[in-house]
Amino acid sequence: MDWYAATLQHGGFPLVALLMAIESSVAPLPSEVIIPPAAHLAWTSGLPLLGAQLTGWPALVALVLAGAAGSWGGATVMYWVARWAGRPLVLRYGRCFFIKPEQVAGAERWAARYGAFGIFASRLLPVVRHLIGIPAGIVRMNYWKFSLYTLAGAALWCAVLAGLGVTVGADIGRGEIHKVTAILVAFLVGVGALYYLFVHRHMTGRR
Asked: β-strand 52-54 against 47-49: which pairing, if any?
C-alpha cells in the first residue's frame, strides 16, 4: 500500500488500469485496495494525464474509465486463454496460476445459472469476478457481448469504489473515524451478503 500510494503520484491512470487488469486475471489483488485510494487522490490532489493534472470530477471519470478498461483487458486475457486452451488444459494447468478445478467448476455453475447477465453481475461480486472469463471462453460466448457486459459491470463497480474512496477520504480528513467505520462495515456486510446469496451457493454446488 505504501508503494502504491507513492507510485500513484507518477503512474496515474495507466497504473490503475494495469493493476485492475491483474485483478481481473489470476492474481489475488482486490480492486477494493486499488480504486478507493486512487479516487481520494484524484479528488483532492489530482492524477497526471498526458502532462496535465486532472482533479475533481474529470479525474474521477477518467479513473472509472481506466479501471473499467483494465478490468476488460484482464478479463479478455482469461477469455481467450480459456477459449484457445479448452477446459482440459485449464483444469490441468490452472493451479500454476492460482486457479483451482473446483473454482472453475463453480464459475461454470454460475455462468449456467445466470447466462450472459452473469458477466455483468460478476463484476460486482468477489471471487467470481476474476473467474468468469474462463467459462465464457470455454463455451465460446460471443466476444463482443462478453466485452460489453464486462465493461458495463466493471465501470459500475469502479464508480461505486470511487465514490466510497472519496466519501471515506473526506470523513477521515474531518476526523470522523466513527462514520468511516460505519460506512466500511455497511459496505462489507452488503458485499458479503451479495456474495453469499449469488455466488457461494453456486460456487460450492449448494442450492
From this structure: antiparallel
